[in-house]
Amino acid sequence: MSTAFLNGAFQRPIRTAPLNSFIPTQETRVAELLSANPDYDGRGTTVAVLDTGCDLRAAGLLKTSTGENKYVDFIDATGGGDIDMSATVTPHADATFTSPITKRTLTVPPNLNTIRVGATRLFTHLPSSSKERILSQRKKSFLHHHTQTLTQLQKQIDNLDSSMSNHTSVKKDKTTLLEEVKAMADDYDDPGPLLDVISWKGEDGEWKVIVDVANNQDLTNSTPVSPYKINNDVSDLGFGSEVTYCVQVYEDGDVVSIVTDAGSHGTHVAGIIGANFEGEEDKNGVASGSRILAIKIGDGRLDSAETGKGLVRALIAAKKENCDLVNLSYGESYWQADSGKVAETFSDAVRKWGMSVFTSAGNNGPAFSTLGSPGCLSAVVCVGAYVSPQMMEAQYSILPTEDVSETSYSFSSRGPTPDGFMPTLCAPGGAIAAIPRHTLQSKAQYHGTSMSSPNACGVAACVISALKQNSNIKLNPIELRRALENSAIAVTSSDPWAQGAGLINAVGAVEYAKEHHGKVGQNLEFEVSIPSRDSSRGLYLRDAAEVVQGQQTYNVKVKPLFEHGINANERSPEQLAELLETEIEFDLKATADWLTTPKKIALLSGVSKEQSFGLSVDTSSLPTGAHFARVQGFVSGEENRGPLFSLPVTVIVPEVTPEPPKKTVELKAGIPNRRFLSAPSSAEWATIKLKTGAMKSGPNSIILHSVPSSTGSTPHSFHETKKMLTLREHSTATVNVPVRGDATFELCLQLSWLSNPAGVEVDVEIEYHSLGVRGKAPVAEGSGLRIGSANSFVTLTLNSHFRSEHCKPTASLTHIFRSIRPSSSTVKSGNPDLDVLHPSNADLVRDSNAVGELIHSTTLNYNFDVSPENGDDKISVVPRVASLHWQLYDSPLESLIWRLKDSNDSILQYGGLIHDPPPTSLPKGSYKIEMLLRHSDTKLLDTLKNLPLQLRISLPKPLTCNIHTQRNSASSSTAVKPLPSSYIRQGYFKDLYIQAPEVPKSVKIGDALIGSITLDTNVNSVSKIPLVWECPDQIIKSKDDEEKVELTEEEKDEMYEKSIIDLKIKNLKKLRKENSERYLDFAEPLLESHPTSIPILLETLEYSYSNSSNSSNSSNLSTSLKRVTDLIDENELSTYFGKSNRVNEDGDRKKEEEKIEEKMKEMREGLRVALLYGIKEGEDNFKDQVVRLKNWVTSESDFKSDEHKRIYKKIIIDYEKEMGRGGEAFKMARERLKSNEKEDWVEFIGELEGMEHLKRNYEERVEWKFPAENVLL
């Protein structure tokens, strides 16, 4: 099928140029174009590469063929490299200052006045390959020093003089130290170094930035870098990373962006588009003369996944730099094609901003309806992956063979979308191109539609370059796409669902554009849709119910899209002329005789510019299988122009039978074998058996890909089955796949040419199964079984429809789903440098001062606590915004990203819209989640200020749900044994009752427990059903048996007085925390009226201690201490707590004894705190003071306050050091780090011989655990 489709205008040319084994250019006729005209190499074009970012020093990506710098600029659109630089300092006369962030003393270049300071973590900016290598190197170095330290410690123990009087205690202490140091290797963790960053405005008015990559705080000789576009400054992050970075400065210096790549993907893509190797032209990219705007949209915080924020900012930046072309080799699943805020921005980039966007089709083939987004969008050029025999030989070292021909890669995603849309065209999907230096290699062979898109984009750059130079023709995105589609070369051995219009053709596109430029309607886009099918962009008939109707009629709407700006009522004279003068008569032609249309349609001028025509589809004579055709609109009398609009039509005629016949299929390399079957109404899964006989050449690798339906109700990835099978002689492979009742499922088999291209025959048997529980929903779509909070079980009725089915059910609950609401929200305007959506080109024509639309953000703050049932355990948590999850390009939001923090503000995890991060294991404590939502509509953001967040919490172990066969046992707590294996005979029914377990202690009101029931463990993947239990509240303990105590009037008065005092103390604590000057105004009268109240005295002691750092307040501390100690008789306390048998009788004596005990405990607590606060390190009596304290404190648990525990542990560590027990002190110091303590005790580690490596590691760990830097979201 030619892309002129009816007349085969473009035929495959005879090869005249040498084969480029690195980046294929001959297949697309670029080599031919450049052989005749070397200057058509993309010069004069700028391509925005939206990807993981690029290595600015990678091979072949330094200069263009004309000697210009290859990169226009390099921008991190994700915000992941942003550093808060709002803090300012003025260096001292000696060019030093103490950073308010890291508290380090920095030496800076002389003669600097006000400078900005910040800090960033090295690992934040490293791609995973470099980070892993550095982690490995640093650990190896750590262990080397650690081994030396252990050896030295062991020598010290071995050399101890046994005649020493304290030999035993010294040896014991040194042995303790040795064991603790040994254990530190097991505790090793490496969060990486924290780097200081400074910036200032130079005399030239440009920003200068220094990152302390040497991490030595001496920046005197460091070379500052300016934003890349100014001087093309590039530097290296050091530490052996080989990672190149540049900087950007935003918001008048408040933000510095460290820009690095997040992986090798983006550099490889840039190399395909525009690599230039002087003197080695065989290694060049497709358009070596093009310039590149590198934009990082792969967020390193999300494992280089894209975000809406990155994508939208990238398109804004591309327009700002007047890019001709945009390449995006990324993509995700979608729910609704051609919808969503990000999708809208891509459409605007093409239609309103005048940039052509090329994007990958996706790597989810070979089954139908697997296109990803944004490849499914109408406005972009969606590129599938093509491979030629020459590519197979050059890039994969395949031996020459007649078994393979040019085709589409098996992985290349196929159309149609659920609404019938198709990929645009195809291009070579493999290349050997440059990759970043931090990978420690210069080039690599990658394949994927990620490679086909930049190849096509490079071809487009050459086409644009040729037209500019040869004919001074500038094509808008619509005209460029039309030239590429209508000149593409059909690949006869590939199908249209993979290749679209065909293989891109550089020479043909140039010739087509030159011939037809300027003709009426040539630069005008036409929207074609079927209103009765939700305005679908094509016609896709797949299920039997639609196909068996025979002849069907549809109304097709054609609408020209005039881009006249946001205020079309104020058109310019040129725009009004276009509107009134565009009248086109079209000839309608169908490419298949089972489609019937009128012969013509006329589009009249004016505002009422859409027109409709009828389409008849007769499927009655079509054989089983897939059929494709187009309805095309040609300008009357100008058929050689090719169609100006087209409606793709795909019809699947499925096999309709309850027992599909066995078939023998011959699999040929590179050609999918498709079988479409209408699943019976009650079918839930199918068993596929592949059997082989004798093989002339084996074994063979077979791709099995099954998609149960294509209704668009869920992304295909939710329920597809895709496996790579190795088939040997006389072997059988069995695969179970989900199906959907009354829907057509595809079974696609494709022989992989990579391992063995020799063809093979395979017997295929298909057998339907059902247990009658899922209805017509695939397993991933089913809402599943739900046990209500007021029920103890749920009933499940099994029914075997097709044959006797094996049944061995098990049920368990594995997770808690907990919903939390935000505690607060803040709204902020976006970055004016990055977040202003440009006005359309049409608006700028009408008003050159037209302004764009600013994007805003809302930050939502969530709080939650973790309390494992066993306090030492951890709980795995995955946050998710359930109502928006799995949507990115089609999301109603521009962007969403969140981060999880602990109580110290240490960042534990990031997450976004489309992918779940790995579960985060959390110990007991308080946590918070900050979520950033972005959109240009503040009203929409306001509606989301109470957006619920779901926490997916793993249970310590699965909770088994008992399965009963009788209702009466399920409604009681009777335990049952697991049900044995059994068979349900065909036509029989069987009831199962799934009983809820006991409510776990960790469950709260509103929680749901989530798990599944598997009906047959032998076919787990297709017989599993979601199980949800809406948990009731915890069991309420009865108070009937509690002892009731009658109080006297005097006791009631005492309780009343105590409650008043407690309330006043609570108020004092609040004033103390607020540093209120009113504290003493409230405290002094309270002390006067209650001079012997221990709680009041302790509260005022806390106030005095918290202010004791001020020398003028030191006497207040002494006074407070004296008040407490004078009130307490230690001898009396010792006598009381030394008694082994105190009175414990009924009646009045018992009450009196309890009062005495309460008073004594209160006094003991007061004494402990007073003694604790009275100890001063460095004083002569320090040891004596600690001994006195230890008489009353056996361990830190004797204190109630965490702050008291912290002070106590610090004092005891210092005491052990004073006593010469360094090993014991070291052991306690390690425990403090584990218990989330922050103190300067790390210095103590450094004081020990050979411990410098430990000190460095623990300093970095403390800096990570207690971050001082403000990390921007």
UniProtKB/TrEMBL annotation:
Database matches in SUPFAM superfamilies: Subtilisin-like
Residue ranges constituting the Tripeptidyl peptidase II second Ig-like domain according to the UniProt record: 801-998
GO MF annotation terms: aminopeptidase activity; serine-type endopeptidase activity; tripeptidyl-peptidase activity
Active site: 51, 265, 450
InterPro entries the record matches: Peptidase_S8/S53_dom, Peptidase_S8/S53_dom_sf, Peptidase_S8_His-AS, Peptidase_S8_Ser-AS, Peptidase_S8_subtilisin-like, Peptidase_S8_subtilisin-rel, TPPII_C_sf, TPPII_GBD
Keywords, sorted A to Z: Aminopeptidase, Hydrolase, Protease, Serine protease
Domain Tripeptidyl-peptidase II galactose-binding: 673-753
Tripeptidyl-peptidase II first Ig-like domain: residues covered: 525-652
Domain Peptidase S8/S53: 42-492
Family to which the UniProt record says this protein belongs: Belongs to the peptidase S8 family.
Protein name: Tripeptidyl-peptidase II
Organism: Triparma laevis f. longispina
